[in-house]
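Preliminary data (for renewal application), 2-acetamido-2-deoxy-beta-D-glucopyranose complex.
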Amino acid sequence: MWWLVKLSIVLQCVHSVRITNMRVPEVVQYGVKDSVTLDCEFEADNVTGLVVKWFYTDRLQLVYQWIPPHKPQALGILRNRVDLSHKVSDNPYTQHRAVHITSVVPELTGNYTCVVSTFMAEDEKTSPMTIFVTETKFDMIQDRLNDKFLNIICSVEGVYPKPELGILVGNRPQRAKSSIKVIDGRYTALTSTVVNIERLPPTVEILCEMMVPSANYYSKKREVFYRDPPATDIPSFEPVSPDSGHHITSTSALVIISIVISSLRLHAT
Ligand SMILES: *[C@@H]1O[C@H](CO)[C@@H](O)[C@H](O)[C@H]1NC(C)=O
Ligand SMILES: *[C@@H]1O[C@H](CO)[C@@H](O)[C@H](O)[C@H]1NC(C)=O
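Predicted structure:
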């Protein structure tokens, strides 16, 4: 038994493959570069049976394969997006190890795994790449609902990957409702919050923030809110807002519902 372990250790030392340097650009801004190269430098003591493979999304999809002395192949999402004649060296056992992508689109965002194997050994490494698209539109709307409440809405369009939105009022993050959808492969997101005007200082900074964490991208919109609108100190009559009517009806509806529920309970028992 022990000699077997020793033998396999010896074999591994003799026939080893080691990825020494993996180079994948972490973040690429869409439209800025015509091409990107994913490289995977390796050392192998014995190149018999050498195969270089690249996988997309955690070894699930084979996207590039090179078995020297054959020509490399691009498959799946990289089909027709790779320059297959690209060489990183003149060495017949390393020249096509890298993937030279000539169509850099956001859909290629993901984790890439390089697997180098020979008959006796194998090594692999994984790196993420994000191709991000900056927003086409970023807006903030301040909407005074009435004397007491201010609605703040932030919207962003055309971003990739998924953005995160936040609203800050006077440096304090607000609890906000968000919705997000995908239109033509880009994210459109909206977030909104309602703040109590009476609790705000006379002048306060309102900030809409957008982050795309995997792209280390941050963008913001800033506006100043003035609590007291000019000339509002007209006293006297208290208008009955149509809202209060709604409140009454919804309250009475609730009362009716609870009466119905309690009578149902009575019937049940
Ligand atoms: C490489 O490995 C193959 C198969 O294991 C073997 O036949 C060959 O002799 C080895 N070559 C060298 C240079 O070690
Ligand atoms: C890479 O994989 C990790 C872990 O599964 C994941 O959190 C990350 O978002 C992936 N990166 C990209 C760019 O998809």
